[in-house]
Amino acid sequence: MELVLALAIGVLAGCGVWLLLRPRTFQVIIGLTLFSYAVNLFIFCIGGLRTGADPVLRDGADLSQYTDPLPQALVLTAIVIGFATTALFLVVLLASRGLTGNDHVDGKDGTP
Amino acid sequence: MSAHLLVCPIVLPLAVGALQLLLGERRRGAVAALGAASCVALVGLAAALVLRVGSGDELAAVYRIGNWPARFGIVLVADRLSALMLLLTAVLALALLPCALARRRQPGGPVQPLAQFLLMGLNGAFLTGDLFNLFVFFEVLLAASYGLALHRPGARRVSAGMHYIVVNLVASMLFLIGVSLIFGVTGTLNMAALAKLVPQVPENTRALLHAGAAILGIAFLVKAAMWPLGFWLPRTYAAAPAPVAAMFAVMTKVGVYVLLRLSLLLFGDGAGAASAHFGAAWLLWGGVATVAVGVVGMLGARELGKLAGYNVLVSSGSLLGAIGLQQPAVTAGALAYLVVSTLAIAAFFLLAGLVAPREEVDGASLLEPYDPTGMALYADEDESRATVPAPVALLGLSFLTCALALAGLPPLSGFLAKFALLAPMLEGGAGMGAGATTLFTLVVVAGFCTVIAMCRTGIQIFWADEDWVFPPIRAGEAASVVVLLALCLALTVLAETPLRYLAETAAQLHAPARYIQAVLP
């Protein structure tokens, strides 16, 4: 499972960075989204991967049977904030498209 | 009440901003009054905090939200550095208030609530005691800053704002990667707990901890605009409306603040042989490179806003280099320089907005290219009609004061701050190698180049160019500039008490045991 997750994070981050460096705003926002998926998965797995383990403690429980709840809390916050800022960027992207008439990140297209 | 003093600088702007949103655009008077009351109250709160942590018996005030122990709950910590930054932010916000109010009838979105949310994010970032809440407050302040940078339309502004947003979103993701790596190695994100754990990290995971810290550092270096991560800054700041750009002058200092705090807390002298001074050399040489780039940009800038932006780079670079030296005396000087340069740069951004035509068309406010054969600068002038209108005289005088403060020439506080920064480097001692010499030389050269760039700009705008049209100045805008520069002047006269406070702050930062003790009793 570790290998699958690591590969998934790697592929998502790689695609994200490549798209981020492209000159079209649409590619940039897709890149940002993919990159944030990769980061969220990375945070999620940083506490160690367990399947079927409970994050909430019960009385008299053996700690080794539980998964770390903190990365899950962190990733929730990160998802919410990442989603909100990406949505904000989408608005600016549309404004830029409307004001400059093209979707180049610099607002200037080589081919008028 | 005094027990909850620490959480007030975060809760107050949040509540006021929300109220202002509810009141809406129609009741501008009430919104403005609320904003003013909040800014005044924040200055009072910050001053109370400075007095409390500066009095000696209580070096770091700790507030545990929900009274959970620090390792599990969220803590707010105010030591001397946090209190100083809070006071600087609040004073800057109050000084910029008249300017913002004078412009409130211009079209644009809800500026005042956004400014309050920006203040909330800034105050939270200065007060928080753990890395994840630092991320949250960073996002709050960034989201507010996106809105502020873009609140007036214009293709240039939107395009610059878009770059700013993308750069900061990517930096936030690097922030998260760094935070989770550190969490993976140590199992905590509380700064004080981390400082305790760093010397005990097993050797096989220490590299991972360093990698996490380095990635985290990159996120802050983007905010602090270190070369080569700072290309977004001059353009964004030049495109932002003048009061907003002036408020942004403190935003690069947030990055500097976090780097100062974390590098001394986590990787100070007590971090063990393998981790002590991790990244210090990078900060030093990165700072040197930033100053160099800032100087070149300043000499080449043909637009006032960009000139101010490159001044930000020079100031940031000097600060980063000074942090990289990791000497208490240099840190104290750097803090003095931080305060003075923030005030002076804010004033300069305001001036740039006042001098340049109000609705900037691209190219309308450009300075002439340098041409030594052109005689326009040296043409004989008709001295007979030498009456200068009062607003222009005020602007010119402010510009001169600003230039003196930024270049670090006597007799203003800029000189004192630069002297406090440079004197320990000159004295030398352990740990001052080639880096200190290079930084010293570059900071002096930067001061000299600031004089050249400012002289050239001043001559072109105020003396030579008879066609330069000064837009009408509102009383509030002039008041903001005068207040900021008067603060610089006041710091010159009353230098002793602040400098002593800063020396104690630096001593506290370099001996973090008391900080850790206060958070984790």
**Quantity of strands of chain A, as a count:** 0
Q: Pairing-aware structural class of the strands and helices of chain A? A: mainly alpha
Q: What share of residues of chain B is helical?
A: over 70%
Which radius of gyration of chain A do the C-alpha atoms yield? 19 Å
Pair with the most extensive interface? A-B, 32 and 29 residues
SSE ordering of chain B: HHEEHHHHHHHHHHHHHHHHHH
Q: Return the domain count of chain B.
A: 1
Which strand order spans the largest sheet of chain B, edge to edge or round the barrel?
A: 1-2
Summarize the structure.
The complex is a heterodimer of chains A (112) and B (521). Chain A is mainly alpha-helical and 112 residues long.
Give an account of the 3D structure.
The complex is a heterodimer of chains A (112) and B (521). Chain A contains three helices and no strands. Chain A has 112 residues and is mainly alpha-helical. In chain A, helix 1 (2-20) packs antiparallel against helix 2 and helix 2 runs antiparallel to helix 3. Chain A is elongated, with a radius of gyration of 19 Å. Chain A starts with a helix and ends in a 12-residue tail after the last helix. The mean pLDDT of chain A is 85. Chain B is mainly alpha-helical and 521 residues long. Chain B has one domain (2-370, 389-519). Chain B has helices at 8-23, 28-54, 80-102, 111-127, 131-149, 155-186, 191-197, 203-224, 232-239, 242-248, 251-266, 280-300, 304-325, 328-355, 390-407, 413-427, 434-464, 475-493, 496-510, 513-519; strands at 61-64, 75-78. Chain B has a two-stranded antiparallel sheet with strand order 1-2. Chain B is globular. The two termini of chain B are 22 Å apart. The model of chain B is unreliable at 358-364 (pLDDT under 50). The A-B interface holds A 20, 25, 28, 32, 35-36, 39, 42-43, 46-47, 70-71, 74, 77-78, 81-82, 84-86, 88-89, 92-93, 95-96, 99-100, 105-107 and B 132, 135-136, 139, 142-143, 146, 150, 153-155, 158-159, 161-163, 165-166, 169-170, 172-173, 176-177, 179-181, 183-184.
